[in-house]
Amino acid sequence: MNFSAERRLPKHDLWIDCGKYYVRTLTSRDASEAWAGWMSDPKTLRALNSPPLTMTKKDVVAYIKNFDQRSHLLVGMFEKGTHTHFGFFRIDIDPVLKRALLFMITGPRKYRHIGIMNGMRVPFYDCMFETVGLRTLLATALASNYAMARFLRQTGWSLDKVVKNETKSHSGNEMLDVCYFSLSRDA
Questions:
Q1: φ, ψ dihedrals at 65, nearest 5°
Q2: Are the CB atoms for 165 and 174 separated by under 8 Å?
Q3: Using CB atoms within 10 A of its CB, is residue 117 exposed (0-12), middle (13-18) or buried (19+)?
Q4: Is residue 144 exposed (0-12), middle (13-18) or buried (19+ Cβ within 10 Å)?
Q5: Those residues with Cβ within 8 angstroms of residue 123's Cβ, 6 or more apart along the chain or in another chain
Q6: Measured distance CA(160)–CA(117) in Å, rounded
Q7: Which residue among 47, 67, 116, 174 is least enclosed by CB atoms within 10 Å?
Q8: Are 21 and 77 in contact (CB under 8 A)?
């Protein structure tokens, strides 16, 4: 990344109202043992093709500190009424091309597949395009992660390509296909 372009990026302190939920910039005060446990959930590991991780609250604090909140943002998803933290977005920005690669994790299973992202996506995308100034959002999903691939396609993302045998499975010896998606500001 071009250091001078990265230096020109402002620090982002985001707070996005998403109806019953909100998204905001994470700080080390948000680290918790519950969050540390998210990466040991077999369903999460399978969807992300990640090896099992044993994390502690201290590991989560270190992870949060890796983000400069300029070109590498980490924002959490929270329930408004209870302020329960249930997931996060990692946003890696290319300031020259004005695009970002998004990663999302929903931790507790009770927050999955219940339509939360349907209410969050428009305010979140508006913030990425209007406030952060991006032109394009990028995402990847394993072809076997049907729920994520279907959600992205149904909400306006373009499936740009599927790369066969792109990555080796962390749970076996097979090679996995990866889908590459994009969402433009115009879309």
A1: -70, -15
A2: no
A3: buried
A4: middle
A5: 16, 17, 18, 19, 23
A6: 21
A7: 174
A8: yes
The structure's pTM equals 0.89
Percentage of the chain beyond pLDDT 90 is 70
Q: In what order do the strands lie in the sheet with 136-142?
A: 15-18, 21-25, 72-79, 85-94, 99-106, 136-142, 175-184, 158-168
Q: How many CB atoms lie within 10 A of CB 98?
A: 14
* Maximum Cα–Cα distance across the chain: 44
A 10 A CB-CB count for 120 gives: 21
Check if the beta carbon of residue 175 is closer than 8 Å to that of residue 169: yes
Per-residue pLDDT, 47? 76
Handedness of CA 138, 51, 116, 149 (dihedral sign): positive
**pLDDT band, residue 3 (cuts 50/70/90):** very low
- Are 149 and 131 in contact, with CB atoms under 8 Å apart? no
Tokens of 163: 């790369």
Residue 40 to residue 56: CA distance in whole angstroms? 11
Report whether 87 contacts 111 (CB < 8 A): yes
